[in-house]
Amino acid sequence: MIIPVVLAGGSGTRLWPLSRQLHPKQLLKLTNSYTMLQNTLLRAAGADDMAQPILICNEKHQFLVTGQVGEIGVAPSAVFLEPVGRNTAPAVAVAALHAISIDPEALILILPADHLINERKTFHETVKAGASLAARGSLITFGVVPDKPETGYGYIRKGPPVTGIGRGGAATQALAHAIDEFVEKPDLDTARAYLESGNYCWNSGMFMFSARTVLDEMRQFVPGIVNAAEQAMQKASARGPAWLLDPDAFAACPSDSIDYAVMEKTERGVMIPFDAGWDDLGSWAAIWDVGAKDASGNLTSGDVMTNDVANSLIISNHRLVAGVGLSNQVVVESPDAVLVASMEKAQDVKHIVDQLKSDGRREAAAHPVVHLPWGQIEELGPEAGMDIRKLRLAAGKDMAFSGHRHQSLCWFVCSGAGWLRINGERQAISASDMLRLDSGARVCLENPGAAPVVVLELAGNRDAAADHLMPE
């Protein structure tokens, strides 16, 4: 049994302003009509002998992640929520412990949720080749055959060939090698030398091993991580269909990548090179590179008009974006921020995000629209000392809060119909109704209908923000 383990906890700051802390890269539609997370799950599901996946994500992304998983009809064997980020090694430990509880002989396939792989058949064949070695105790890493001198990736140097995976089928293009060395991101001249030598592959961050074997190696090299993962799982609490790892136990877990914690130390490591149109889509330049461009070399999306524009990426998500006389530029528009950068400096977007965080600005963390179990909140902005936001209660859902701190809370029902309870008293509501909610009131809005209920909320006491609408 092969259990895919999808790691969906990253933030993807280099794809700001579309990627934010609360709506990161793996939850965006960047290459087709599916999000990166959905593409990863569907790709894994298409391989032979695949069991239901294990999904690990940040606690703050739970509702977006579970919603996207449900949209494609995937039923994970477990969803684990990380209360804090601790890199990939603790996540692998959690997944391995859970996999053993399903099948003591299970193999786990570690997949980042935000990578592009164009050639699905080649990916499946490579995984099949790795499974035969992983079942015999090897720790497999998949190395991407480089096609350019990339300075943004780590590299793996091939060792001697590993025999025993057979000939034909999957093994034809995926001959395994012992691992000589993991190498940090090189400078350009070194990357060129790596490419010319043919002895190096990019480190893809994808792995496969027996759950039991990787736990044995982790107990040898990083026992503190395994112990903390066990404690966090034993004390985990149910959050709907997911499990929240115990915050205290997981926060005490050392932070480390599976590369450093195990793969660079083990004697069981094996690399299988593969060439399947892989990209980690780590910048807007990478998005432009893999996208379908027009005759002028432009990749555009949304309401975009151009004149005398070449080799540029222009994305509109909210309004008309017009470009004139541009070359090798990146322009990305969102409802509350616009990025303009040269293509060659696309990686440096992360410095803007760092500055936003330092200044405490909301644009680093969240979009104006926040997704919750019952629907959405859209911040429309402040006006005359009031916060204005739009609430969208999905069909068949209800939302409740009590003791809000605002001096005043006014709701105007824009569309839909439902029931409102204020301190236990129930009344019908419908479009055009105006309602006042006193501070401290117990409020429950119910939507039994088939259409959403949309409410415009005006709130005083701006320092209290939308805390009353957030789940505990």
End-to-end C-alpha gap = 37 Å
Number of domains: 3
CATH homologous superfamily label of the largest domain: Spore Coat Polysaccharide Biosynthesis Protein SpsA, Chain A
Q: List the total number of helices.
A: 11
Report mean pLDDT, rounded to a whole number: 92
Main β-sheet: number of strands, strand sense, barrel status? 6 strands, antiparallel
Tell me how many strands there are: 29
Quaternary organisation: single chain
Give the C-level CATH assignment of the largest domain. Alpha Beta
* Binned strand content: 25-35%
- CATH architecture name of the largest domain: Alpha-Beta Complex
Strand order of the largest sheet: 20-21-22-29-24-27
CATH fold-level assignment of the largest domain: Spore Coat Polysaccharide Biosynthesis Protein SpsA, Chain A
Helix content: 10-25%
Question: What's a quick, concise take on this entry?
Answer:
By secondary structure, the protein is α/β, with parallel strands linked by helices. The chain has eleven helices and 29 strands. Helix 3 crosses helix 6, helix 3 (88-102) packs across helix 7 (223-234) and helix 6 packs across helix 7 (223-234).
